[in-house]
């Protein structure tokens, strides 16, 4: 099982879109894929037609047992999606209350990791969608994953937020026993705008090692897909946005063979 977290402390950079699209492409290629919504806003959950304000069970349930994960609980939380081969553990708005409740609970940072350990034989890939704030949920995601994907919107202020994220990340990586390779993914790239072109160049200069070699372009199909609750690749296999994600996936799978 390969576990990738998609995180950035900034909202609106394409995290959820990256989870849905990579998840969909992996599922289409025959992999068994799980996407987990660890964002109390629940955009990933809404994408697949569930209302995070009304769900009786969600990832929140995992955190209700004093740092332990009861046998069988993760499997009970799985929801099927419109995309064959792609399952979802949804978020509910209750997740927003966790920060307060989890302080001082033993093992609180390892709950997602323990939950996924129970699903080890059931999935080939797990993608964890994250909230923009660094708290117990993101700590859980980073502890559980083998690679971190950091989507960064190609705009003038992109670098500022990214530096913060990378610093936080280095801090967390130091506290792990194993390395956590990361890939920075330029998103919402529009080569007709100066802002996009400049910020992509600046990113290349600042992060020559960790930056993905291409960028995800602006593609209105993604917005339409999220409104329709469809996995982009499933209905429009070949827009330029989906093609870019497909290339990203190939690179990630290739890297994973070497590093993770
Ligand atoms: P995050 O999860 O980081 O908050 P989202 O994936 O929800 O970001 O994306 C924010 C908004 O931008 C959504 O409306 C989404 O449909 C849109 N979006 C994301 N990626 C693209 C893209 N490559 N082209 C066009 N719109 C995009
Ligand atoms: Mg999101």
Automatic annotation (TrEMBL):
InterPro entries: AAA_dom, DNA_Partitioning_ATPase, P-loop_NTPase. Pfam families: AAA_31. CDD domains: ParAB_family. Residues 1-179 form the AAA domain. This is ParA family protein.
